[in-house]
Amino acid sequence: MAHIENIIFDYGGVFLLLDEEKTYQAFKDLGLLFISDELSASNNDFQRGRISIPTFIKNIQKELPRPASEQQIIDAWCAMLGGLPQERIDLLKRLKKKYRIFLLSNTDDIHIDRVTRTIPSTVEFLAQFEKVYYSQNTGYRKPEAEIFQLVLDENNLDASKTLFVDDVKENAEGAGRVGMHYHWLDLSKETVLDIEKVIEEIEKR
Length: 205
Hints:
Elements: E1 6-9, H1 20-29, H2 37-47, H3 53-63, H4 70-77, H5 86-95, E2 100-105, H6 109-118, H7 122-126, E3 131-134, H8 145-154, E4 162-166, H9 169-176, E5 181-184, H10 195-204
Parallel strand pairs: 1-2, 1-4, 2-3, 4-5
């Protein structure tokens, strides 16, 4: 039978409310009708910390049919960001009494700055984790094996006793490839508030 001692959580979608359609619409309003391969690659590099905020913004501006200011780009990029429900923070407070818990997010400096400045409960939320990992500080991004291995190695975690939770199926499966238990949080059917039941089911296997 499995025994879970550690839980690594994703951030956006799992805890932080997201509405990506708002960002898509904001960029459509600026004239961006589709995401090119170049822009997608730029986003991936940005999340790995390989390019700066000004470079990322310039890469977006190049794709637009008409001029847009740096602030317009930042506001559009952050339009998806919602709140942090208190009941999800309370869940972490319960879980940390029994498990070592960590945060692992594919994110970037623009989003982290906006969330930190505009959502007061961010401080309380982050304080629940033993350690927080943002992709742009690691050089990798999920589902790359290196980012999962980094968290395991730095914290002496046994993969076979560690659960990873993400609302992106590909990312969840990436954790499985380094030996972790994983759960894809299908947001059309469940929320992170159901995770205690998920753990019970895993430990019965």
